[in-house]
Structure formats: C-alpha cells, structure tokens
Write a structure and sequence with these properties.
The protein is α+β, with helices and mostly antiparallel strands and 172 residues long. It contains 3 helices and 5 strands. It has a 5-stranded antiparallel sheet with strand order 1-2-3-4-5, sandwiched between helices. Strand 4 and strand 5 form a beta hairpin. The longest helix has 23 residues. It is globular and about 50 Å long. The structure holds ligand GNR and nickel (II) ion.
Length: 172
C-alpha cells in the first residue's frame, strides 16, 4: 500500500471531467486500497480518484470515526430526494479552508462496488454531503465553486503563496 500525493487547488488537473471506469481489475483494486490508505492518513472522510491524478469516475468515503464504514462508488449516479442541508465543508485539495455549502440533504445514489456489483442506497447527513462533494470532484467541481468569486480568489491566492513557499524549501 502507498500514500498518494493529493493535487491542490488551483491545479488545473482538478478541473478535468473524469471518464467512466470500464473494468474493475486488479490495478483498479490496488488504486482503491491506496486511496483508502491516503484518505485515512490525511485524515479525511472521502477521496475522489481525480484528487490523486487518476481521471476515472471512482470515489471512496468513510464517515465513521473508527474506519469501519468504507464505501467504494464506481461510476456513481445520484438524484436529490428531499430537504436541504448546510455543512462546513473542507477538502484535502484545499487544505486549511472550511466554508458553509448548502446541498440537498436526502439523496439516492447508485454505483458499482469493488466486486463490480451494482448497488443503490438512500442517505442523508454527513454521508450524503460527502458523496455529493466527491461526485462534484468527478465533474471537475470543487466546494469553492459554491462561494463568491471574492472568497474563492482569496483562498486561491493564499494557497498559491503557500505552494510557492513549500516548493522553494524543497528545491533548496
Ligand atoms: O475530509 C473531508 N471532509 C469533508 C468535510 C465536509 C464535507 C466534505 C468533506 S470531503 C473531505 C475530503 C475530500 O476532499 N474529499 O474530496
Ligand atoms: Ni474534496
């Protein structure tokens, strides 16, 4: 297993629309294992393949506190069902920033699991927020896209500055 580097906003590779997975094979299963290791190490509650620079429609989530509810969603589809929920979202690709985003609360989602079996579920609360946040990643979308341009640009400038400083210290 391995911890994978996570792309950081405003990297343009986070804006690429991910392609459907055509085969659940051994190399995809290895990627899934490495994504879980990366997400748990961060720590985070979700991770989309695009964040580790793999442009496939694959995401993982685990909103438990003891790593007991790992879910894999391959080629997911979702529909909003009812209600709205406000949540302070963060993103491993936008480290250190948390902002309130409003999304549908209850959703229906269907996907393939790691055994290539189709499944569907309804969920709400943090699991629903997290799945929607990850599905956005597959379409090149980030939670900062729901904020004002001013807030998004402020976050972008701060992260660009941090990235310049850290690349200076590693190339010295
Ligand atoms: O770890 C994460 N926490 C989180 C908190 C609120 C809403 C969404 C998330 S997902 C995020 C991990 C991540 O960036 N996934 O793409
Ligand atoms: Ni994210």
């Amino acid at each position: 297993m391995a911890i994978l580097p996570v792309l950081q906003f405003p990297d343009p590779r986070l804006r690429v629309i991910a392609k459907p997975v055509t085969k659940v094979d051994d190399s995809l299963l290895r990627l899934i294992d490495n994504m879980f290791e990366t997400m748990y190490a961060a720590p985070g509650v979700g991770l989309a393949a695009i964040q580790v620079n793999v442009h496939k429609r694959l995401l993982i989530v685990d909103v438990s506190t003891d790593q007991s509810e790992p879910y894999v969603f391959i080629n997911p589809k979702f529909k909003p069902l009812e209600g709205e929920k406000e949540y302070d979202e963060g993103c491993l690709s936008i480290p250190g920033f948390y902002e309130t985003v409003t999304r549908p609360d209850k959703i229906w989602v269907s996907a393939l699991d790691r055994n290539n079996k189709i499944f569907e579920m309804e969920c709400d609360g943090l699991l629903s927020v997290c799945i929607q946040h990850e599905i956005d990643h597959l379409d090149g979308k980030l939670f900062v896209d729901y904020l004002t341009k001013l807030k998004r640009n402020t976050i972008r400038r701060k992260l660009e500055k941090q990235q310049r400083l850290s690349s200076q210290s590693t190339s010295a």
